[in-house]
Structure formats: structure tokens, C-alpha cells
Amino acid sequence: TVDANLAASRSQVSEHAGKLQPGANPRYNDFQPGITAAFEIDFWGKFQRADEAARARMLALEAGRGTVLASLYANVAQGYFALRGFDAQVALAEQTLATRRENLRLQQKRFEGGVVGELDVQQAAAEAAAIEATLLTAQQNRRATEALLATLLGRSPAAIVQPVIARGTALETLYTRAAVPAELPSDLLNRRPDLIAAEQQLVAANADIGQAKAAYYPTIKLTAGLGYESRQLSTLFEPSSLFWNLASGITQPLFRAGSIDAVVAGAEARKAQATAQYALAVQGAFRDVHDSLNAIASAEALVTTAEKRIVALREVLRLANLRYSNGYSSYLEVLNAQRDLSQAEAGVIDVKRAQLAGVVALYKAMGGGWATPAKS
Predict the structure, then answer these.
(1) What is the per-residue pLDDT across 116-132, written as a single tens digit (0 to 9) for each?
(2) Is the model's pTM score more than 0.90?
(3) Three-state SS string across the chain, please?
């Protein structure tokens, strides 16, 4: 450390203390400008370890920023995929509602012609109303997701109340493009921000132990002073008013009532805690990757099964219409086939959205994707 000093004082000495020469003025001034410097030799690495700990904590905070950004990106992506899923649900519900209303119109005409009874008309009306309720729910969910995305994108309150979100690619295309590599190296987890933060916290805790143990050893300090001192301003900066000093000192702790031991023990306990937290973070990272891959694989298998079921249900609906047209079954059989097909088509949309959400979760679990940086 280097400090500049400036002191000025005015004093009076007792005339009866016997300290003054005969005829001397008991009042005098003292002016003293100067510079002082002090240097502590980091012989035991106390300051070096403190700097290491502070740098590690700074890197941990920067990694925490990366965790926030990765979460934001993942939430935006999942919100967008959810929005495209609700778009598909709305489109399916509108298409289905148009079909149900047409069925209702035909049933009403057949009832007016005496071909069917009122039961068939009421069943068709009830089914049309159920689909209309499904459409309203999907539209409500879509509006809520639009507002959520507008909030995540940091838009104005007006844009959140009346959001306009660009749609882009359809859900079906997004699903076909969401490919995940067959093998992912575990080394990619090294760039996960939370693992980096946990590792740097462990580095900082280890450095804290070295800093605490340095208190056991002597402290070596060097000091120096340089300045001028005079009773008169007119002679303040004359060479004869110059003064300087050099000094060194060493301090060895002998008795601290166990305070140094307690500080070291606390630092070692914090290191043990940081080690456990780092191990827990690593375990959580592998669990996140496992869960994401499992969700993706399960969703892909469910999509395949659901698409097979849709093909079969369409054939069931065709046969049910034939049976009803030829008088072999009631209209309830047709309605059941229509309802099962509609639910299966809506279900496959949800499963595809879940698969995309799993891909986003894997992106987050891998610390920002699985693409390896290009080597220069």
C-alpha cells in the first residue's frame, strides 16, 4: 500500500514545565507532508490463496449466469413447442368440429325424413358440443402460451396482453427434425454451467484452507516513510527538513485460544460440503441426461404406437359407418369410433410435443446442446 499524508498542527507548551529555552515562544506550528508505504511479504501464500479463492468464486458466478441463460433458452423452446402443439390441437378440433356439425346436419335431415329417431340427433348434437368445448379449451391454452412466450421474450405489457408470436415451422416438421445422436460422450457434461460452478466452489473452498493455515506462520511486513517536517512553511521543503524511515517487522502467533484452529476447521468443513455438493451435481447431471433420453425414447415409441392405432381406428370408423348405413348397428357405434379416433389424433400431438420437450430437456442437461465445438 502507498498513502500520501498531510498533517498540520499548532501547539502550546507550558511555560512552567521547564521544557522551553529562555525567551522561546511557547506556541509553535508543525507542518508534515509525506508518503508512507507498506508491503507484506506473501511468504506462505496467504494472499495468493485468497486471490485464487476469489477468482474461483467469480468463475462460479459467471457459470451461474450460464445456468440462467440455458434455463431461459430451454423455457422459450419448450413454450414455442407447446404453442405449436396447441396450434395443431386447435386445427384438429376445428376440423373435427366441422365434421361433427356436418354429421349433425345430416342426422337432422334424416330425422326430418323419418329415417332415424331423435336419439341419433341428440347424440350427434352432444358430440358436436363436446368437440366445441375441446376447441375452446385448446384456444384458451394457446392464448396463455402466447402470453408466456411474450413474457419470456421480454416484450412490453401491451404485447403480453395482445401477443403476436410468429409461428414458423409446423409441429410435424419440428418433430421429424428433432434428431438426437445415438451416442453422446459424457465429456460434454463438463461444460454444464452448474457443474462448472460447483467445481469452482470446490476450488475456492480448497484455497480457503490454505489461506486459513497461513495464519499459523509468521507475518513479515516492510514499511517506509518519506516526507518533510518544519515549524515554518518557508522552510518546509528545504533539504534540511527532509525525513525518512525504513522498518521491517515479523509477527509469530503464539497463543490465540484456538481461534486459528477453529478457522481452519471451518474451512475444511466447507470444503467437505463443497465436495459433497459437487458430487451431487455430477449425479444430478447424469440423472438429467438419463431422464431426458428415456423421455425421448418413450415418446418416439408412443408416437409409433399411436400412429398405428390411428390407422386402425380410421378403418374402424369406416366399418362403423358402413354398418350404420346398412342398419346393422346404432349411431352410437359410429360416435364411439369418431370419439376414439379424435382422442388418438389429439394424443399423438401431445406425444410429439412431449418428445420435443424431451429434446429441449436434453439440450439443457448437456449444458447447451451436444454439438462439439469446431477445432481450429
Answers:
(1) 888 889 989 999 999 99
(2) no
(3) CEEEEEEEEEEECCCCCCCCCCCCCCEEEEEEEEEEEEEEECCCCHHHHHHHHHHHHHHHHHHHHHHHHHHHHHHHHHHHHHHHHHHHHHHHHHHHHHHHHHHHHHHHHHHHCCCCCHHHHHHHHHHHHHHHHHHHHHHHHHHHHHHHHHHHCCCCHHHHHCCCCCCCCCHHHHHHHCCCCCCCCHHHHHHCHHHHHHHHHHHHHHHHHHHHHHHHCCEEEEEEEEEECECCHHHCCCHHHEEEEEEEEEECCCCCCCHHHHHHHHHHHHHHHHHHHHHHHHHHHHHHHHHHHHHHHHHHHHHHHHHHHHHHHHHHHHHHHHHHHCCCCCHHHHHHHHHHHHHHHHHHHHHHHHHHHHHHHHHHHCCCCCCCCCCC
